[in-house]
Amino acid sequence: MTDDTRIPRSSENDHTVEMAKTRREFLKQKTGTDLKYTGEYSIDPAILPGNIENFIGIVQMPVGIAGPVQINGEHAKGQFYIPLATTEGTLVASYSRGMRVINECGGVKTTVVEGWMQRAPAFIFEDARQARDFGEWVEQNFEQIKAISETTTSVGKLEHIQQWSVAKTRYLRFNYTTGDAAGQNMVGKATLVACEWIKANSPIPCMYLLSGNMDTDKKHSHLNMLHSRGKRVIAEIVLKKEVLARVMKVDTKMLAGATTLANTGALMAGAAYNGPHSANGIASLYIATGQDEANVVESHAGMLSHQLLDNGDFYLAVTLPSLIVATFGGGTGLPTQNECLQLLGCVGKDKANKFAEIVAATVLAGDISLACAVIAGHWVSSHDKMGRNR
């Protein structure tokens, strides 16, 4: 890389208005692009170390408000207005429509079942017997390993270690609780210290790789569907037959039949989620509130379950087994993102479970609305009316 192609940086203070301007001018010289709107922002670049490198400005996303939605959770209780950052027309209106149905049916019940964050090192031995015996030693010394790992964090707690043997390798999956943080970096540091202690104290000589990829960081996996990564959260509701017919112009028997067809289609396709569109609400809410956007790939996976009840009402539930959320750390402290978390009452200690319940309720609202729009024939017409730039 020659000096005239190197992106300008300051070794003294790289997060300044001046350095951002210098880089924009450099890019204009190299590409001819005038980054006028990117360079118009209200936040102080001094707050950005730890969030971004080579800062040039802000990409502004429109934020709309859906709701309110009545949530009857263990952590999220009451009515909430949901900030959604998106460029997709009809999205906010659709979620609001689903929330109206939820409200008229008494609200959505939300439950956080469990929550872990993982790091999964792989330990390598001379043969499979050594790997097996090492696994037994790890089980016997769990309390010491737990104590060592927790020396790196005041929040993270090692709860259990899962194990699998493959050839002469023993894969360990460390499962932590992480408070209000998503915790990927937290558990990485904790597991590194634990692995170094294991390597030094194991009676069986071993080498290790800090991530053997069974933590499936930023990747969907069936393992997470079964064993949870992030929050396993469920949002459920009984949709009243009368409300669905009046508001959505859909009969519950039609919805049950269409949902069965959709389940079969998702099964044939090998989809990570069998409902209409969990990723839409999750991504929009994540962007608005400063979540790690790459976690959408894990978080959108799940199951939409249904049952047509004897009285004609319709039970519907969303299970999200790997919803990775944070109300502390990362981008959650940035000004506009923190304001959106404030809208939800999710700033402060012990708010991550509350936020997880809100996300799950939002996904359920979106699925109700889109499923009914497809059945009633409103899907294309609503996008044609509201989702096109004319």
TrEMBL record:
Keyword Transmembrane: yes
Keywords: Membrane, NADP, Oxidoreductase, Transmembrane, Transmembrane helix
InterPro entries per UniProt: HMG_CoA_Rdtase, HMG_CoA_Rdtase_cat_sf, HMG_CoA_Rdtase_eu_arc, HMG_CoA_Rdtase_NAD(P)-bd_sf, HMG_CoA_Rdtase_sub-bd_dom_sf
Single annotated GO MF: hydroxymethylglutaryl-CoA reductase (NADPH) activity
Superkingdom to which the source organism belongs: Bacteria
Transmembrane spans: 358-380
Pfam families according to UniProt: HMG-CoA_red
Family annotation (PROSITE patterns): HMG_COA_REDUCTASE_4
Gene Ontology biological process terms in this record: coenzyme A metabolic process; isoprenoid biosynthetic process
E.C. number(s) listed in UniProt: 1.1.1.34
Enzyme class: oxidoreductase
Family membership noted in the UniProt record: Belongs to the HMG-CoA reductase family.
Protein name per Swiss-Prot or TrEMBL: hydroxymethylglutaryl-CoA reductase (NADPH)
Gene that encodes the chain: hmgA
